């Protein structure tokens, strides 16, 4: 060999080594699975100047090799990877039906033995079964000659795949055997590829685990209350729909809006965790169907007191008659009083339901009823939990005791169990808690103006978003998920700054956060699984949201996109009852139509 030839060989080696280094760097940086696999196979083919190649991956069961990418340049075959054309070949079995290892196929042998196999001519080899290869050759007019089959072993020594190269070529294009000089290069590439693949699979496994964990939390929140079943699943779906519509816009305010792959995943995480703070909200607040409801409906206690008062009326009448009083007059007065008590109880029960506005005259009547007294002869300070007992007056009251039919007692006040949030809190919350954690006073609750919730109850329901942000801020999110708290924590903010918990204005909120606010509202309006309301029609919900747009509570541009893109109907067809989906004329709600 001349010095010139030696120099050329050295230059060729240097080029291949540099290319190997470049491939190693590229493999460590590539995050797309399909592009990574293509890079491995194409890079190996380039280093060996081979005509064809196959990349297999070990299945999760560890019993098969699955075709991932197949390339044959001279036949124009390109399957798998980013081509969009799946590989139609069945997987290679690593074990037979009896559980014996399959060493007949060269790819399975390399996987099972963990060793490289270099075959100069498959047609002259009797060690492996090349029946399938020869059938392929006959069908396609091809000649599979030289094979280099290398296992891909990760840092634990486990085989995660197999790289197989076919028909090495010399500079003139003639098929030759794979040189022993190239084998270490391909083994080095295979080692780097295995680590890159393994890292990617570990990252994907972590993502899948996190997704499953998010789904578990969301399902637990939905299962916690029949009033919000499915909410944590539907809001992310609608958020995704509207975000895709914004990303697809080619003109208008969202023409420049787009999300990277990492940001789409970030949005998925934010959507799944947007209500995680609800785990801290007591069920009896979320599900408070009547004014006196806590863990049970306390109307039953009040009914018992009415029964006691009615018995007292009966007894007083009997005693008066026995003492020589006017029987007919006393009986008539008894019947009048019993009827009055029945009517009063019916009124209290009606107030407890919370179906109508509590006008001042109704509250006055409640106060008159509350003034009625009855006699308690049993100690009400025994048999209590420690928490309830500490709210009772420290000094016991001598029995018997005269009590009111409806009462607001000291023990009805439940103090905060943690310091109240202040305006200088690190999260910048503008919401302030009421003086007490709960006020269980009977007259206080029955006097609620509308609905069944006290100011304390509403605070705890609204507090779920505060707790969501606190919980999410406490998580050590990686850089790619740093905006999850902001995206998830803004769905109760309003564009005019009157929302909560931070009182943000439109310009202070990101597009995903504003999208999630619309998704949360529309899901709540259209929900068909809320026991406290009948399902609204699609047109009713759109009309309500148009008022919210007019009041600057939701983003006007996103609301118009929500309508013009058809997302509102796409969501309706997926999640609403057929009878809810009516015709909606969106023209009046679009700014262009108004102009």
Task: Provide a compact summary of the structure.
The protein is of the alpha+beta class and 595 residues long. The chain has helices at residues 3-29, 33-48, 106-113, 131-140, 182-224, 231-248, 261-272, 283-286, 299-322, 327-353, 360-370, 386-389, 442-446, 455-473, 484-488, 511-526, 538-550, 556-564, 567-575, 591-594; strands at residues 50-58, 64-72, 77-80, 92-93, 117-119, 147-153, 159-169, 175-176, 373-376, 401-404, 413-414, 438-439.
Largest sheet: 8 strands, antiparallel
Report the sheet-strand fraction.
5-15%
In the CATH hierarchy, the architecture of the largest domain is 2-Layer Sandwich
Number of domains: 3
**Remind me, CATH topology of the largest domain?**
Beta-Lactamase
Rounded radius of gyration (Å): 37 Å
Q: Helix share of residues?
A: 40-55%
Choose one word for the global shape: elongated
Estimate the mean pLDDT confidence.
88
Distance between the termini: 85 Å
CATH 4th-level superfamily of the largest domain: GAF domain
Main CATH class of the largest domain? Alpha Beta
Write the layout of secondary structure elements.
Elements: H1 3-29, H2 33-48, E1 50-58, E2 64-72, E3 77-80, E4 92-93, H3 106-113, E5 117-119, H4 131-140, E6 147-153, E7 159-169, E8 175-176, H5 182-224, H6 231-248, H7 261-272, H8 283-286, H9 299-322, H10 327-353, H11 360-370, E9 373-376, H12 386-389, E10 401-404, E11 413-414, E12 438-439, H13 442-446, H14 455-473, H15 484-488, H16 511-526, H17 538-550, H18 556-564, H19 567-575, H20 591-594
Antiparallel strand pairs: 1-2, 1-7, 2-3, 2-4, 5-6, 6-7, 7-8, 9-10, 11-12
Helix pairs in contact: 1-2, 1-5, 2-5, 6-7, 6-16, 6-19, 9-10, 16-17
